Amino acid sequence: MNLLRFITCGSVDDGKSTLIGRLLYDSRAVSPDVLEAIERQSRNTPGGGIDLSLLTDGLRSEREQGITIDVAYKYFSTPRRKFIIADAPGHVQYTRNMVTGASNADCALILVDARHGVIEQTRRHSAIACLLGIPHIVLCINKMDMVDYSVKVFDRIVADYRSFAQQLNFKDLVCIPLSALAGDNVVYSHSSDDSKSSDAYRGRNMPWYAGPTLLQHLESVEVSADRNLKDPRFQVQYVIRPKSDQLHDYRGYAGQIQSGIYRKGDRVTVFPSGLSSSITAIEVHQQEVEEAFAPQPAVLHLADDLDISRGATIVRSDDLPTVSQDVEAMLCITDSTPLRVGARFLLQHNSATVKAIVKDVYYKLDINTLEKIPQPHNLAINDLAHVRLRTSEPLAFDPYAENRKTGAFILIHENTCQTVAAGMIKNIEPDYVI
Predict the structure, then answer these.
(1) Does the pLDDT of residue 195 top 50, yes or no?
(2) What are the phi and psi torsion angles at 221 (to 5°)?
(3) Does domain 322-425 have CATH number 2.170.120.40?
(4) Which residues pair with 422 in a beta bridge?
(5) Residue 170 dihedral angles phi and psi, to the nearest 5°
(6) CATH code given to domain 239-316
(7) Statement: residue 209 has pLDDT above 60
(8) 55-90 pLDDT, tens per residue?
(9) pLDDT on residue 71
(10) Which of 16, 58, 239, 325 has CA atoms 20 to 30 A from the CA of 210?
């Protein structure tokens, strides 16, 4: 499936929700009944036009305040691609929501108000996008209509942002000037041009800009190369044992292939036990196949009856992950419960859940300057920090920078079951390698 997941992020009132509304509206992805409802709710807005932000700001409290609090998800498609959009909140106190929305994103749209340029929340969201390993970044310089579509303003903001982004080492950064309110360079190059001809992308408001519109760029972002097809990783979600007369000896291990490719006959190792076997059959959509690859759901059959349960990791024996009870990670704190050395939680690593204790907090990251603040006393909500955890049993994982699927986890409060933090595993030395 040609699918792109992207997130919009930036400061309050940069126009994130309006931008998504414009994408949906101009690409004709809004149903007539929804459009009628939005028009009805927009009657009291200044100017009397359609308030496109209402297409994503669904909570009553958000509409009353004119801000986005929760992460709103929208789906639309064009003839070239399908899209899943996450509209992240801009307020500092909702930074944790942005982490949630960005965890599976292929691309991040960093919005900047052309009147204000690069500000604190721009840097904050950019740093989080870097930590989360989002491979494609689009700097959307919005509200160009409010600075008379000035190329000098655009060039100044691009230079400021690129100077800051050098510290983050983004591998793919594109800068686009646009006006979400007027529609310039979102789907078409200017709001009055609905044609599909090649001239539709030759803007009259910004003739100095020769690049693609936002939708054109999103349709062309190449995400297949971002998938890790090198390291075969499969975590068991369910053990299938029908025990029926027809399938008396059937034993299949069901789950989603997180990365890599599995083939019939592959020699595999199962963690945390460390026992080995070989793949005798692979099923995809109830059909036996010779091979399966990420991100397909699959059922693996092994030659030996091993003790395998939910959360076990099956990897190819010639490409082993790190196996350790010590986990070093960057954490984003998502709960008001203070996190300090000695605190105990449940660590959920995909379908595996183990107990964990915070052994050390090395530093807290200052998002504005990217400065490392050593040995903080405790961590509060929205803080980003480098910590060391000790788990009750070994985990099989890869560094997040190499494999986003097997390098991520969450911490859960043992009593309240609240998610306390989202984690991204850093490189460490393993306890042992089989």
Answers:
(1) no
(2) -65, 125
(3) no
(4) 332, 410
(5) -65, 135
(6) 2.40.30.10
(7) yes
(8) 665 544 444 444 334 556 788 889 899 998 887 664
(9) 55
(10) 16
pLDDT in tens, 282-331: 999 999 999 999 989 999 999 998 989 999 999 999 999 999 999 999 99
CA dihedral 37→42→43→45, nearest 10 degrees, is: 170
* Residue 298 contacts residue 283 (beta carbons within 8 Å): yes
- For the segment 322-378, what is each residue's pLDDT rounded down to a tens digit? 999 999 999 988 888 888 999 999 999 999 999 999 999 999 988 767 788 998 988
Contact 236, 308 (CB under 8 A): yes
Q: DSSP secondary-structure letter at 184?
A: B
CATH 3.40.50.300 correct for 3-226: yes
Q: What is the pLDDT of residue 192?
A: 44
Does residue 262 surpass a pLDDT of 60? Answer: yes
* Contacts with 22 (C-beta within 8 Å, 6 or more apart), sequence order: 52, 180, 181, 183, 186, 187
Q: How far apart are CA 155 and CA 192, in angstroms?
A: 25
Q: Alpha-carbon distance 135 to 132, whole Å?
A: 9
Q: What DSSP letter does each residue of 261-303 carry, written as one string?
A: EEETT-EEEEETTTEEEEEEEEEETTEEESEEETT-EEEEEES
Cis, bond preceding 272 (omega within 30 deg of 0): yes
Give start-end residues of each CATH 2.40.30.10 domain in the chain: 239-316, 322-425
- Nearest CA to 353 out of 345, 344, 363, 362 is that of 345
Measuring CA to CA, which residue among 226, 201, 74, 73 is closest to residue 136?
A: 226
Residue 433's Cβ-count burial label (10 Å; 0-12, 13-18, 19+) is: exposed
Quote the pLDDT of residue 234.
97
Q: Distance between CA atoms of 66 and 53, rounded to whole angstroms?
A: 9
Please check the confidence at residue 177 and state whether its pLDDT lies above 50. Answer: yes
**Residue 143 host element (H or E):** none
Number of H helices, E strands in the chain: 7, 23
For residue 430, is the peptide bond before it cis, meaning its omega torsion is within 30 degrees of 0?
no
Name the 3-class secondary structure at 104. Answer: coil
**CA–CA distance, 320 with 322 (Å, rounded to integer):** 7
- Which residues pair with residue 24 across a beta bridge? none
25-34: long-range contacts, CB 8 A cutoff, minimum separation 24: 25/50, 25/52, 25/55, 26/183, 26/186, 26/187, 26/188, 26/215, 27/76, 27/78, 27/187, 27/215, 29/76, 29/77, 30/55
Domain span(s) for CATH 3.40.50.300 in the chain: 3-226
Nearest-angstrom CA–CA distance, 117 and 122: 9
